[in-house]
Structure formats: C-alpha cells, structure tokens
Amino acid sequence: MWEWNRPVTVREVLEDLQQERSIAYTTVMTVLDNLHQKGWVRREAEGRAYRYEAVSTRAAYAAALMNEAWSQSDNPAAALVAFFGMMSAEQRETLRDALRIVQGPQTPAAQNTAGENPAAAEAETGR
Fold first, then answer.
1. Can you give the pTM of this predicted structure?
2. Cβ proximity of 126 and 76 under 8 Å
3. Which of 31, 69, 94, 114 has an alpha carbon within 20 to 30 A of 60's alpha carbon?
C-alpha cells in the first residue's frame, strides 16, 4: 500500500500480487479486512467496493518496530551498541544526520570544548 501512496482497491492489490504468484481475490479481501479491523489501514466506501489506505507511513512503522524491539531488551545500551555495530558506514552517517535533526541547532553553551553535545558524550562514555 505504501508504494501506491494513495488509497487502493482490493482489485488493485490483487493485480499487483498476481504478478508474482497466484492468489485469490477473497484472500486479499480478507487480509485487507483483517488489517482494517486491527487498525493498520483505514477504508472508505467507493460504490460497492472499499479503498484502503495505510494508517501510518513506512518510516513510522519501521520506527515503531525498532522501538518495540529496543524496549524489550534487558540492556538497551548493549542492544544499541550491537545494532550500531551491524550498520554500514553509510547507515551510521544517516543515523548521525537523523540525530542532528532531532537535536536541533546547538547553542555554544550546550557544547563542550571538543564541540560535542555533553549529553551525547555522556551516553558514549556511560557516565
């Protein structure tokens, strides 16, 4: 559904899925109805059919999955270190960019003499 970036019908989803495998219309309809009942998609009647649309973005869904996995850890810091260790250099740079966006502009008083955010330095050293 995210790929369309618009509300879609069961028929559209069916035709897309049938490019890769054989699947019944009723199967797609049942899955979309289940997703609607669970709150993952919303639907709007259009004639005798419904148009379905994802409730959240793909990015928000991925973030929720990561947050859920991280919150299940008995040692969140170790989980993050292991996760970061799995990242490529490009992924780590993307992470740094995301942190800069979340943290917003830094004032001189909020930086230490090395030019780092004290809270970030504290998190890195564990102090």
1. 0.60
2. no
3. 31
